[in-house]
Amino acid sequence: MNIYVSNLSFHTTDEDLKTMFSKFGEVTSVKIIFDKVTNRSRGFGFIEMSKEEEGQEAIKMLNNKDIQGRLLSVSVAKVRDNSSYGSKSRW
């Protein structure tokens, strides 16, 4: 299960997220997204958990939880549709 986490503190690390989510089950990957120019966290990331039910429990327990002074927003990650990515409408 792929989980989207936003409103992260700029000081939150991949290891912080792994520790947080590991309380609910096996975390297979963690990725905080960084700005390419400034190399600073953009305040969101993705967690992949091996079991759907563990991911759902993590979402339930961590959504709106205060972590490092920020209320996390935790939800199921949406699949990105690349078919229209970067395309321009012509009217």
TrEMBL record:
Keywords: RNA-binding. SMART domains: RRM, RRM_1. One of its GO terms (molecular function) is RNA binding. Signal peptide: none annotated. Transmembrane segments: none annotated. The keyword RNA-binding applies. Residues 1-79 form the RRM domain. This is RNA-binding protein.
